[in-house]
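Sanity check

After download, print the first record. It should look like this:
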Amino acid sequence: MKEKYNYVTKLDVKFNHLEKIDIPEMVRECKDKWFNQTLTKVNDSVVRVGIVEGEYHWHKHDKDDEFFFVLEGQLFVDLEDRIIELNPGQGVTVPKGIVHRTRAPRKTVMLMVETSEVSPTGD
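Expected structure tokens:
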């Protein structure tokens, strides 16, 4: 049985190609502490927005790399041996198979790029 997490994760593609994406509007409308929405599909990958505060659980992706890019706020990517701090305009790619979790000490807006097949909560 899969564990239940208190995250709002929407895997449906919200915007078609050539449709304008307005992140500030999505941020204004978001009432959840940990919200992910798939914005668009680019070839075999998806771009997601995360509007987050608090921490995600430890997990890994066996077959997929994951890219995080901070637009607003601050994101910590905890690894088993170190912590990567990301501020606006900074990003990092977590390679497949690496156990990690993300934390946001305050409301943070980030973009994520990963394959469309990835399970956001981990394998």
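If your output differs, re-run the checksum step. Summary of this record's structure: The beta strands are 8-10, 34-42, 45-55, 66-72, 75-79, 83-86, 91-94, 100-115.
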